[in-house]
Amino acid sequence: MNKIAMYFICTVSIGALTGCGTNNSKQVSKKVATTKIDLLGNFKSESNGVYNLKGKTNPGAKVWYRYKVGSKTFKNSLLANKSGKFQIRVVNTSADQDTTNVEVDVKAKGLKQNYDVASIENHSSEFVSKRSKRYKLTSSDKAYLASSRVKASYDKKRNAAKQSSEEERIEKQIDNDSKKSNSTKSSYKSRYKSVSLDDFIGNPERYEGKNIKTSGTVSYIQRESDNNTMDYVVLNNSDDSAATVTEIEVEDMHDNHITEGDNITVEGGGLTQTVKLHGKTLKSDIIVDSVIVN
């Protein structure tokens, strides 16, 4: 083979190798799309504790789900139909679990896996029945709150409590003004003693005429047509097993947008033996100076 032929072969070979290297450098990885997922419905179970969780994803996608009721875990998988729709049967009849968190994973062929969670509210008969066994006011209780006899008792004790509270405030202010340290904030804090609502309801005599601070959930509001300055507000404790009446200025009620179901903190003077509920005299009452919604 002569020199010219050898040169031609070498040139072609080098060009071929160079061409292969150039083609490899131009390869670019493709971005993979994500499987879509959309969970649908009002997320509230039926009275039997069952909720059919509906969703939509890519047609034929694999669907996995998992949820817990108490200590028991439920999990399974299924396939979305040709329209991408699927349905999961969720059952929660627990009397103690208010919501069920259903974790759902989906993956279609050639797409990335996706994930979402649905929180299903428990409206089963067992749960609703347990929640309904709470401290509630009867129609006669509400009528009693509005009676003139109760309002007269309220007025007498409220005026006495307010007078005592004002005298105590002035006395403390004079004492604090005589001190050189900045005691405005500490004076305010010391004016009201923090007590639990259960402690106040169980031992109202201990706090008779004293300034206290406590919290509870509003279960009933009595608005009087002939009294546009004050509302009677019933506060329940944490498990709704006991309650106390409080008296809150209408202006404070409106400023704080207080409604039934709100958890509030009140500061005011403690009273006893003012209201009769469920045929028994309610031992506790609070004349509220200030209120906030928690």
Q: What is the number of strand segments?
A: 13
Q: Could you state the order of secondary-structure elements as H and E?
A: HEEEEEEEHHHHEHEEEHEE
- Please state the second-level CATH architecture of the largest domain: Beta Barrel
Computed CA radius of gyration, to the nearest angstrom? 35 Å
Give, in spatial order, the strands making up the sheet with the most strands. 9-10-11-13-12
Query: Percent of residues in beta strands?
Result: 35-45%
CATH superfamily of the largest domain, by name, is Nucleic acid-binding proteins
The CATH topology annotation of the largest domain reads as: OB fold (Dihydrolipoamide Acetyltransferase, E2P)
Shape: elongated
| CATH domain class name of the largest domain | Mainly Beta
- Mean pLDDT rating: 77
The number of helical runs is 7
Gap from first CA to last CA: 98 Å
Structural class: alpha+beta
Explain the overall architecture.
The structure is a single chain. The chain is of the alpha+beta class. It folds into two domains: 37-132, Immunoglobulins (Immunoglobulin-like); 139-293, Nucleic acid-binding proteins (OB fold (Dihydrolipoamide Acetyltransferase, E2P)). It has seven helices and 13 strands. The protein has helices at residues 3-25, 125-132, 139-145, 148-177, 184-191, 197-202, 250-255, and strands at 37-40, 50-57, 62-69, 72-79, 85-91, 99-107, 114-121, 193-194, 211-223, 230-236, 243-249, 263-277, 280-293. The strands form three sheets. The protein has a five-stranded mixed barrel. A four-stranded antiparallel beta sheet has the order 4-3-6-7, with no helix packed on it. The radius of gyration is 35 Å and the shape is elongated. Mean pLDDT is 77; it is low at 3-25 and 180-189. This is Lipoprotein. It comes from Levilactobacillus brevis (Lactobacillus brevis). Residues 155-188 are annotated as: Disordered. Residues 155-180 have a biased composition (Basic and acidic residues).
